[in-house]
Amino acid sequence: MLTGSQFRRMALALPEAQESAHMGHPDFRVHRRIFATLSGEGESRGMLKLTPEQQRQWMQAEPEVFVPAAGAWGLRGATMVELAAAQPDSVRVALEAAWRNVAPKRLL
Question: I need a labelling partner for 51 at 20 to 30 A (CA). Which of 6, 60, 94, 101 fits?
Fold first, then answer.
């Protein structure tokens, strides 16, 4: 099980990550580009900006944890994370992938 606070700490531990807000939800950015958000009752869900291929891989590996976001966002790789069902190590790796997807090349 993972909490919203743990998700936040993992996201902010990534190089040059900052917390901001978008549409009333906390988000995590690197150089103004969102790579993750928190939402749900008590920040019970995360969202990761993955590629569609990464999303498929995570959903196949852990379908109870990773699900596509609704609508077009989900088709483009936005992936919801059910924190109550998640293991910290798995989410940490997925957060790192989402961060790499938007980070400037000089940080990679």
Answer: 6
Structure tokens at 99: 């961060």
Q: Which CATH number does 4-100+103-107 carry? A: 3.90.1150.30
Distance (Å, whole) CA 25 – CA 53: 26
Question: Diameter of the chain by CA atoms?
Answer: 36
Distance CA 105, CA 108 (A): 5
Instruction: Give pLDDT tens digits for 26-80.
Output: 999 999 999 999 998 889 999 999 999 999 999 999 999 999 999 999 999 999 9
Buried/exposed 20-44: b ≥16 CB within 10 Å, e otherwise: eeeeeebbbbbeeebbbbbbeeebb
- pTM of the predicted model, to two decimals? 0.95
Indicate the domain borders of the chain: 4-100+103-107
